[in-house]
Amino acid sequence: MDPLDKKSISIIHHHLEPGGVTEVVGLSVRAMAAFLPGIAEIRLVSGHSGGAETLAGQLKTACARLGVTVTLDIVPEIEYLPADATPGDKANELADAIKTKLLRICSGTVWMVHNYHLGKNPVFTRAIFEIARDRRDEKICLYIHDFPECSRYENLSFLQSFFPESPYPVTPNVRYAVINSRDRDYLVSAGIPDSMVFLLNNPVPAAELPGGNDEELRAKLESNLTEEFPAYIPGAPLLLYPVRTIRRKNALELGLICAASPLPVNLVVTLPGTSSTEKDYSDKVCAAFAGGLIPGLWGIGTRLKDAGLSFPNLISIADMICSSSVQEGFGYLFVNAVKWRIPLFARYLEVLDGIVSLFDDHPSYFYRSARIPASPGQITALRDAYKEKARRLVTVAGPEIVESITEQFSDIIDGDTVDFSFLPVDWQVKTLERIRGDAAYRNSVRELNAELYRALEKLRPDAGRSRKGAVVQGHTQEPDWPFTFERYAATVKSIIDSFELPSGPAPDGRPDVQAHLIRRFADIGYLRLLYAN
C-alpha cells in the first residue's frame, strides 16, 4: 500500500503568528496540498489562536479546491513558557497534559513538529521527546529551523534546567528535517544516521513584479517618504534591505558601507524591530538615519500605502537587494534577489554553502567583512569585552568551549583594523558619526574596503542595463531551481516513505547530539557584541 494512502499530516508549532516559521508553514501546506498525492488532511496545531485562525482560514479555502481538508487545534500548553517558569510537579503535569492532547489530535498521522527544542517551552520539548521514545508507532518528523546551541545560550540554559538530556531522539520512528546543508552536516556528524536527516529547502513560489513606470514610482517615493531623512540622496541608486531591524540583520554595517561609499547610494531598510529584545537596537538604527548618519530611508514599509505604493512597487524600483546579516537559517532574501532578477550585494554566510551555485549566473557580490581602523586601546577593550562575554557561558558550554571562543578573537582583528560587525552597537554608531565628520577617516574606511566598493560600482545600474528584470512566471519552475512547491512536496514524500524503510544502522551507544552541537556552534561569530550581553 502506498505509504501516503489515507494519511494525514499534523503540523505543530508553539504559535502561528506572522513570522518566518509561520510563513514556511503556510507555503508548505499549499505545496503539499497541490503536489503530495494521497494526503487528504492537514492538521494545524498551535499554542494559541492569535494568527492561527487567520492562517487556517486562508489555507482551508485554498486547499479545499485541491480536495485537502485543513483543520486547526489549539493546545495552550505548547505555547511559550514564561521566562520565570521553574521545573517541578506542575511542569510534570503540564508535560503529561501535552502528551495526552497531542496524542489525541495527532496519533496515526505524520507529525511535523517545528522548532520543538528551541528553549521556548522545555516542557513541550520533553513531551515530544517522550512520545518519540515511548510511542514507536507514531511517525515523527522533527523540523528544525534554528538551534538553541547556536548562540541562543539563554534559551539553552532554560531548556537544560527542565530537560537535562540531549533533546535529539535517535529512534526508528523519528526523522529530522533541516533547512540548510550546514545543519544537516552537523546532525549527521553528531551521530544521527544519515538516512534519518533530510534537507528540506523552504518553498519559494514563483512571482511577478508588477508593471509600472519606474520614474513615477520613484517620484512618489521621494515626494512622500524622504522628508525626515536628511541624508537621502535624490536620484541615487536604492539599495533595498527588506527586513525587520533586528540585531542579527546588522543593518548599521550596510549603513557604514553606504555612508563611506564613493558612489552616492541610498540604503532602504523597510521595517522596525518590534519585540522587547529588539526595540532598543531598532530605535538606534532609526536615529542614525534620522540624524543624517546614513543616506537613505528607514522603516518606510509601514507607510508605503499612504504614499500610493506597494511593497512590490518598492522591489521594482530597487537597484540592488542587499544584506549585512550575520546569522540566517535559510536566507529568503538571497533567494528572492535571484527570483526578482535584481543584483545582490551581501555579506556571505555559511548557510549559503549548499546553494551558492544558484548565484553563478546572477549579478552578485558577497563580501566577508567590512573593516575599520582601530587603535591598540580599542582592540584591547574589544578583546576584554569578548573574554567577559565568553566567561559568562561557562555553566552552559563548559570551560573548554569558552577557551576556544576566546582564542578566536584573533579572527576579528587584522593588524590595526577590526571587522565592523563585531563592535558593540554604540561603538558602531560612533563610527558612523566619525565618518560624517572626519574626511580622512572616511577615506581610510574606503581604502580598507576598496574591493567591496569596486564590486558595488560594478553592480550599480547604468544606461546600458535595466535596473531590474521582472520575474517571468516560469523562471522559478526551471529544473535547476531547488525551491519549487513540487520539490518541497517530493522531499516530504521521501520523508514519509522513509518510515516504511529501515532507518539505517543504529549509532554505537546513544549519541550526545546536544554536546556535539554546542561544540560545532562554539564560534565567536555567533557571540558578537551586537547581541545583548
- Helix-residue proportion: 25-40%
Reading side by side through the largest sheet, how are the strands ordered?
A: 3-2-1-4-5-6-7
Segments where pLDDT lies below 50 for 5+ residues?
A: 463-477
Total DSSP helices? 19
Number of strands: 16
Largest sheet: 7 strands, parallel
The secondary structure category is alpha/beta
Mean pLDDT across all amino acids: 91
Bulk shape: globular
Strand content: 5-15%
Radius of gyration: 24 Å
Measure the end-to-end span: 55 Å
Word description of this protein:
This protein has 533 residues and is α/β, with parallel strands linked by helices. 40% of the residues lie in helices and 14% in strands. The chain has 19 helices and 16 strands. The chain has helices spanning 20-35, 52-64, 89-106, 122-134, 153-162, 181-189, 214-224, 251-260, 279-290, 311-317, 332-340, 376-391, 394-397, 399-407, 425-437, 439-448, 450-459, 485-498, 513-520; strands at residues 7-13, 39-46, 69-74, 110-114, 139-144, 174-178, 197-199, 238-244, 266-271, 296-298, 320-323, 344-347, 364-367, 371-373, 413-414, 417-419. A seven-stranded parallel beta sheet has the order 3-2-1-4-5-6-7, with helices on both faces. A six-stranded parallel beta sheet has the order 10-9-8-11-12-13, sandwiched between helices. Helix 3 packs across helix 4 (122-134) and helix 15 crosses helix 16. The longest helix has 18 residues, at 89-106. The chain is globular. Residues 463-477 have low confidence and may be disordered.
